[in-house]
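Anyone opening a protein record will find just a pair of labelled lines. With that in mind, the following record should read easily:
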Amino acid sequence: MKSSELKPTNYPESYAGYISILKDVELISGLEESLNSFVEFAHGVPLDKLEYAYAVGKWTLKDIIQHNIDCERIFNYRALRIARKDQTNMLSFDEDMYAANVDANQRTLENLLDELKAVRAASIALFSSFSQEQLDQEGMASGKIISVAALGFTIIGHEAHHARVFRERYL
């Protein structure tokens, strides 16, 4: 499935920014390519910028990687539930609370990237297992309708968004 096949009704407006930055991306190859691109980007960041935040309360690159890991796990969980036709509304989560309760800066870059790679491998396996019918399935997350496919594309766009913000504000 390609990102261009999504309709704006397949995801909440708050996810539109993540999905709109994608070109005509195929889901599985997009998950693979975006991971490779992000890992290459992270390896290119100067060492003195890995734990740098441009303002008080802003995240470091290590915090951003941990945030991407946490969000991807949550998106996968949501996708699984929706694909299995669980129509229970899944509550939102507080990304700032998550960030405040993990110390990503105590981990090495390689350790964080290894975890990101492991989570992405699980994402690829999960989304590869879905039929077209399951990818099209919609459910409720944070009180908004979203499709399984839109969650997969959100993983790609979310990661690209954070890499872009880091380039613009930190480097």
Remarks:
- The helical segments are 16-20, 27-44, 61-83, 95-100, 109-129, 132-136, 148-170.
- The longest strand covers residues 138-141.
- The beta strands are 138-141, 144-147.
- The mean pLDDT is 96.
